[in-house]
Design brief:
single chain, Thiol Ester Dehydrase, Chain A, 6-stranded antiparallel beta sheet
C-alpha cells in the first residue's frame, strides 16, 4: 500500500474515532442533515375562530421538535434563546397532518442553530404544502443553568440515554451569543393592555413553546376586538432574556400598533413575577401580524373606526 493511501486511511480512522458519539449514532444530529422530527394531527382544540390552527400552537410544536434535537446533540440540558421572524404561508385546518422537519445548521461553543420547517397535508392525501419556516437558537446549560460547551455533555458511548428536561428556561444568554444584555425596567409600559395573567403550568422543554402559544392567544384577543375573526400571518424575531420557572406568574401585555386595510400589527410583551419576589421582569417581546378574514377564511377589509 502506498504512503499516500496509508495516510488517507489513517486520517479517515482518526476522524471516525474523534467524531462525537451522538453524531455517529444518530445522523439527525449532523450539521446539514434534514429529517422529520415530529408529526401531529391538528384537532378541534387547536383551532381559532376562523377554523385554522392558532399560530402559537404551531410555533410551540416547532420549538418542541427542535429542542429535542438540541438536547440530543448537546447530550444534556438546553434552553431556547431566540427565534427568527416567521411568516405563515398556508393555513392548517382541522384534521390536517402536520410534519415538522429540522436541520442542524450550526454548532458553536455553547449554542446551536436549527432550521425548522412545517408542512401540512390533508389526511385524505394530496401534496404536502409548506406552512412556515424559522431558525431557532438553543444554548446548552449545566445543572446550575449556566452556559456550557456543547460537547461537554456527551457520553463516550453510542447507547442512547434518557435526558432529563430542563426545569428553567434561560433566554438569549448574552455571554453565549456574543451580544449585550439589555436592561429592563420593573414594570410594563402603561399604554399596553394586560391580556393574560396566569401561572406557568408547563415545564422543561415545553416552557418556550407554551409561552409562544400564550402570547399568540393574547395578541389574537386584541386582533378580534378590533376586527373580528382574524388569523396570525407572521411574527418578528424574539429573544428570551429572563429565566422562567414552573409556577411563576406570567403577565402578557399587548398593544395595537398599526391597522392597515386588512392587517393589524400588535406588539406583545411577556413579564414574569417569581414565586418568591414582587418585582416583574420582562421575559420577551415580539410583534405579531394578523389578517382579518371572513367566514370562508378569505382576507377581508377591516371596518374603519
Amino acid at each position: 500500500m502506498s504512503l499516500v493511501r496509508k495516510t488517507t486511511v489513517l486520517c479517515c480512522l482518526a476522524v471516525a474515532l474523534l467524531a462525537p458519539p451522538a453524531a455517529q449514532a444518530d445522523p439527525v444530529l449532523r450539521c446539514g442533515r434534514k429529517q422529520v422530527a415530529r408529526r401531529r394531527i391538528a384537532m378541534t382544540r387547536h383551532l381559532n375562530g376562523a377554523g385554522n390552527v392558532f399560530g402559537g400552537w404551531l410555533m410551540a410544536q416547532m420549538d418542541q421538535a427542535a429542542s429535542g434535537v438540541a438536547v440530543r446533540r448537546a447530550g444534556g440540558r438546553c434552553v431556547t434563546a431566540a427565534l427568527d421572524s416567521m411568516t405563515f404561508k398556508k393555513p392548517v385546518r382541522n384534521g390536517d397532518e402536520l410534519s415538522i422537519y429540522t436541520k442542524l445548521e450550526k454548532v458553536g461553543k455553547s449554542s446551536m442553530t436549527l432550521f425548522v420547517e412545517a408542512f401540512r397535508r390533508d389526511r385524505a392525501g394530496g401534496k404536502a404544502e409548506k406552512v412556515t419556516e424559522g431558525r431557532f437558537t438553543y444554548v446548552a446549560v449545566d445543572k446550575h443553568g449556566r452556559p456550557r460547551p456543547v460537547d461537554e455533555g456527551k457520553v463516550a458511548s453510542t447507547v442512547r440515554r434518557v435526558v432529563r428536561p430542563p426545569q428553567r428556561l434561560f433566554g438569549a444568554l448574552a455571554k453565549a451569543l456574543g451580544g449585550k444584555r439589555r436592561r429592563t425596567s420593573d414594570a410594563p409600559p402603561a399604554e399596553q393592555h394586560l391580556r393574560l395573567r396566569t401561572n406557568v403550568q408547563a415545564s422543561g422543554l415545553d416552557i418556550a413553546g407554551w409561552l409562544l402559544s400564550e402570547m399568540d392567544l393574547a395578541a389574537g384577543t386584541t386582533a378580534r376586538q378590533r376586527a373580528g375573526d382574524s388569523v396570525t400571518i407572521g411574527v418578528t424575531g424574539m429573544s428570551f432574556t429572563k429565566p422562567i420557572e414552573k409556577n411563576d406568574e406570567i403577565s402578557i401585555y399587548s398593544k395595537l400598533e398599526k391597522v392597515g386595510r386588512s392587517s393589524m400589527r400588535i406588539r406583545v410583551e411577556a413579564w414574569r413575577r417569581p414565586r418568591t419576589g414582587d418585582a416583574q421582569e420582562k421575559v420577551t417581546e415580539g410583534t405579531f401580524t394578523f389578517v382579518a378574514v371572513d367566514k370562508q377564511g378569505q382576507k377581508r377589509v377591516i371596518d374603519a373606526q
